[in-house]
Amino acid sequence: ARQFFVGGNFKMSVFYPSTLEKGQNGTVQSIKEIIENLNNAKIDENVEVVISPPTIYLLLTREHLRSGLEVAAQNVFNKPNGAFTGEISVSQLKDSGITWALLGHSERRTILSESDDFVASKTKAALDGGLGVILCCGESLEQREAEKTIEVVTSQLKAVADAVGKDWSKIVIAYEPIWAIGTGKVASTEQAQEVHKAIREWLKKEVSDEAAEKTRIIYGGSVNEKNCGELAKQEDIDGFLVGGASLKPAFVDIINAKS
Ligand code: 13P
After folding, report:
1. Tens digit of pLDDT for each residue in 211-224?
2. Which of the residues 34, 72, 123, 140 could staple to 52 if both were Cys, CB 3.0 to 4.6 A apart?
């Protein structure tokens, strides 16, 4: 069986109310509160938990978060070193105890114009350097309405397969329909399961039987403590990537959705 995986993507996190409703988020203080809440929580031992704070708080998070819970960067560059102002390398993340990178998020694809190939090259760099990758994919509302969902998602994944080849053991695929992100409009269990199943079939056909069987495919987009239980029951949903709700104490309920 695939180990359940729950990621918390804090984004830049100024749009959300702070954990425990104490003012703005994205401060040293609010990050510490979130970490403390997680450190003291009863977390199902069978769940892999990875949180992804803004870059500036990565070291602070790693320093305070209890062992067994992992930290992801929200981005990493595709070059090992050199003059790349504002970028961070895989080895610098590793040196700081950061074991995962979140790549291909729709906000970076759309707002920062990251192409499928750029996302793929960063995925390759991260894997080569020994990081795990939470690889995001997902369609816009327009693409869904044009019945292009599977085509869009699999072409995003194909760029990665072309770059990294057959070893997907350190990739977790996050299916995040853009129309469900931050909108409160969660995909229905049927909609999510349908795409997850199609992704698994694609893995079987284009990568390997093993990748299809073992790769965790997690769902993201308006997941909360109320809707997570039903989604978690779906055969091909192996966890969640949580935005807004990861900044609240109820994140723990989402982590424990299976228990
Ligand atoms: P929300 O959970 O806030 O919809 O965000 C989802 C997301 O984009 C996680 O990466």
Report:
1. 999 999 999 999 99
2. 72
